[in-house]
């Protein structure tokens, strides 16, 4: 927003900026997609590789995975800070109705705190991002902040796309 819109002061919810983070590595090519059967038969003559694949459940003749099952599940998105009660404030994405509840009741984030964003995935350890500081002051507390979070892999597959909101409150 430029601030020149006549209703700018009357609209407490504004879109300030959009961040898209790409974890792509220059020159990285994900390669062709293969079925589990193709991976099981790939380098079949290498004994140590065969044992490693078996430890992962990749064996010739194994039942194919359910094509409709999600390959990745996002369980939680949280703000972690030592000053927050219980050390974090978050969204349980695997809890039915959580996103609907957050559309009516935004997360209450204390102003000026230093926090890290943490995402918990299905089969991986939590991913923590670099610390940031929440804005503070009267203007920062004057509205509700709408956020759209999207989790996309290198192939462009979208695993999560959801909206949520938060309100900065006095610490």
What features would you describe in this structure?
- The protein is built from 3 helices and 8 strands.
- Strands 1, 2, 4, 5 and 6 form a 5-stranded antiparallel sheet that branches. Strands 3-8-7 form a 3-stranded mixed sheet.
- Helix content is 13%, strand content 29%.
- The protein is elongated and about 65 Å long.
- Strand 1 (74-80) and strand 2 (88-92) form a beta hairpin.
- The protein is α+β, with helices and mostly antiparallel strands and 171 residues long.
- It has 2 domains: 33-65, no CATH class; 70-171, Coagulation Factor XIII, subunit A, domain 1 (Coagulation Factor XIII, Chain A, domain 1).
- Keywords: Cytoplasm.
- GO terms for molecular function: Rho GDP-dissociation inhibitor activity.
- InterPro entries: Ig_E-set, Rho_GDI, RhoGDI_dom_sf.
Secondary-structure map with pairings?
Layout: H1 36-41, H2 47-55, E1 74-80, E2 88-92, H3 98-104, E3 107-110, E4 114-121, E5 127-128, E6 132-133, E7 144-152, E8 158-169
Parallel strand pairs: 3-8
Antiparallel strand pairs: 1-2, 1-4, 4-5, 4-6, 7-8
Family: Belongs to the Rho GDI family.
GO molecular function, one term: Rho GDP-dissociation inhibitor activity
InterPro entries: Ig_E-set, Rho_GDI, RhoGDI_dom_sf
Write down the Rg: 22 Å
Please count the helical segments.
Answer: 3
**Per CATH, which architecture of the largest domain?**
Distorted Sandwich
What structural category characterises the helix and strand content?
alpha+beta
Q: What is the average per-residue confidence, as pLDDT, rounded to a whole number?
A: 79
- Let me know the number of strands: 8
Helix content: 10-25%
How far apart the termini lie comes to 28 Å
Q: In sequence order, what are the helices and strands, one letter per element?
A: HHEEHEEEEEE
User: What is the CATH H-level superfamily of the largest domain?
Assistant: Coagulation Factor XIII, subunit A, domain 1
**Beta strand %:** 25-35%
Number of domains: 2
CATH topology of the largest domain: Coagulation Factor XIII, Chain A, domain 1
Highest-level CATH class of the largest domain: Mainly Beta
Poorly predicted regions: 1-16
**Major β-sheet annotation:** 5 strands, antiparallel
Which word captures the global form? elongated
């Amino acid at each position: 927003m430029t601030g020149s819109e006549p209703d700018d002061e009357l609209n407490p919810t504004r879109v300030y900026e959009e961040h898209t983070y790409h974890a792509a590595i220059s020159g990285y090519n994900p390669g062709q997609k293969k079925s589990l059967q193709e991976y099981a038969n790939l380098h079949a003559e290498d004994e140590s590789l065969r044992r490693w694949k078996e430890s992962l459940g990749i064996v010739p003749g194994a039942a194919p995975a359910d094509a409709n099952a999600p390959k990745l599940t996002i369980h939680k998105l949280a703000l972690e800070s030592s000053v927050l009660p219980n050390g974090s404030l978050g969204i349980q994405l695997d809890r039915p109705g959580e996103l609907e509840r957050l559309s009516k009741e935004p997360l209450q984030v204390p102003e000026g705190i230093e926090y890290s964003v943490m995402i918990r995935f299905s089969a991986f350890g939590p991913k923590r991002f670099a610390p940031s500081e929440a804005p503070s002051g009267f203007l920062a507390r004057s509205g509700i902040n709408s956020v759209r979070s999207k989790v996309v892999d290198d192939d462009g597959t979208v695993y999560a796309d959801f909206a949520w909101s938060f309100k900065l409150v006095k610490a």
